[in-house]
Amino acid sequence: MARLTYFGLFALQHRGQESAGISVSDGRAILVFKELGLVSQVFNEATLATLQGELGIGHTRYSTTGSNTWDNAQPAFKTDGRRGLALGHNGNLVNTAELAERAGWRGGATTDSDLVATLLAEHLGEGLEVAAMRVLPTLEGAFSFVMMDERTVFAARDPHGLRPLSIGKLPGGFCFASETAALDIVGATFVRDVEPGELVMVDDEGLRSRRFAESPRRALCLFEFVYLARADSRLYGRTVLSARREMGRRLALQAPADADLVIPIPDTGHAAAQGYAEEAGLPYGEGLMKNRYVGRTFIEPTPSLRSRGVKLKLNPMPEAVRGRRLVVVDDSIVRGTTTRQIVQTLREAGAAAVHLRVTSPPVRWPCFYGIDMSTRKELVATDLTVDEVREFIGADSLGYLELEALVEATGSPADSFCRACFDGKYPVPVPEREPTKFALEEEPAGRPSPP
Ligand code: SF4
Question: Rounded to two decimals, what is the model's pTM?
């Protein structure tokens, strides 16, 4: 089981690169191994061999609440002295501070996830199923959970289904994963998504389901299609790859450019750049070589790490770009600092012009549901016009895909998505005192703030 979970985590490494962990159970006790680092750094043959059991859950972390520390790595483990539970969380709650205050919580960890595990443990005497039915309805915000006790694996999704979570069928059982690509990789067949507001349980008897809340409406994060999910995953029944290609086509119609070559910013920009090139009748090529062993820049925890990551990660190919007027296709501009560096390196490599085309609208509002952009001041488009953003990043022209066209490219209706970072309409109300990443810890003096 540990090995299968390990392969699943490997497939989901792009979703979190700060820490990784696996917990297993042999039916009597839960064993957890977690550490800071990538999946391949955290686990080896010896550690996997110690994780014996028929049930397991795993997690890769990308911090949106709490610092990057061992305590905050997941699965979170709690026990009431007799029984135990382990929990992995994808998403971000918006009522963390209120829940912590109500529970008088003082944990070693500083994440909303650890807080939820603590709240569940208070009811463990009645079993994890009862605990989940009591605690899940009190949570507000985004959560896709995998949980386990000694004998059962649980999966639950918030009533809006903000983060994805799918069910797969294995020859001898079932599994859950944030993306369908992970199901493919462990040899599971896609069964269905966990429904918003649903608690699903798998044990010796098979799969059972209960509803812990009604779903007011679906609101899958639109950014999953734009940036976060793997191109070979399927969301709402559509491959992310085909949606991104369609975004590129629509972008070419909305924001044409007088250019010689269309290049992607790897990797998310590939499909969209191909779509743009096809629609515009321009050649498509590679102009930036990606070092595949460097993690995603946007989801690294501090600005200085992000900036170092960009330089290590993307190297322009002068023969491909020199003297050429480029259309450069990217998925989004959040802080703008990464984009600015890329534009600069392309110019240094001899590009005659850089026309930046972005397959999403300007990100003007923060995300409180699990993407690390939770304050207005870190978003370049909040106070700047499109032309001011263009000037900031140093491009010759800048074109964004309009929200309506982006949604159409996904093939699903607008009201099935959260689009809040683009239009400011939050499906789950955000408290007046906006949640911050460090809600459960003292903001240390000198913590770097995003540029
Ligand atoms: S605010 Fe944006 S990034 Fe956050 S969940 Fe909504 S669409 Fe996704």
Answer: 0.91
Nearest alpha carbon, ligand 1 atom 5: 221
SS3 50: helix
User: Using CA atoms, how far apart are residues 189 and 191, in angstroms rounded to an integer?
Assistant: 6
Does ligand 1 have an atom closer than 6 angstroms to the CB of 371? yes
Q: Ligand 1: distance of its center to the CA of 170 in Å? A: 31
Q: Say yes or no: CB of residue 222 within 6 Å of ligand 1.
A: yes
Question: Which atom of ligand 1 has the smallest separation from the CA of 420?
Answer: 1
Is 418 a pocket residue for ligand 1 (Cβ < 6 Å)?
yes
CATH value of 240-413 in 1.10.600.10, 3.40.50.2020, 3.40.50.880, 3.40.50.970 = 3.40.50.2020
**pLDDT one-digit tens code per residue, 54-107:** 999 999 998 777 777 888 899 999 998 899 999 999 999 999 888 888 777 776
| CATH class of the 2-216 domain in this structure | alpha beta
CB 328 less than 6 A from any atom of ligand 1: no
Q: What is the pLDDT of residues 354-409, one digit of tens each?
A: 999 999 999 999 999 998 887 888 899 999 999 999 999 999 999 999 999 999 99
Instruction: Let me know: does 120 contact 87? Beta carbons within 8 Å.
Output: yes
Please report the atom of ligand 1 found closest to the CA of residue 163.
5
C-alpha 21/C-alpha 10 separation (Å) is 11
CB of residue 419 inside a 6 A radius of ligand 1: yes
Number of residues in the chain: 451
* Every domain of the chain and the residues it spans: 2-216, 240-413
Q: Buried b vs exposed e over 358-373: b needs ≥16 C-beta within 10 Å?
A: bbbbbbbbbbbbbbbb
421 lines ligand 1 (CB under 6 A): yes
**Choice from 144, 222, 422 to test ligand 1 binding pocket (greatest atom count within 8 A of CB):** 222
Q: Is the dihedral of CA 228, 231, 233, 237 positive or negative?
A: positive
Question: What are the φ and ψ backbone dihedral angles of 351, each rounded to 5 degrees?
Answer: -60, 135
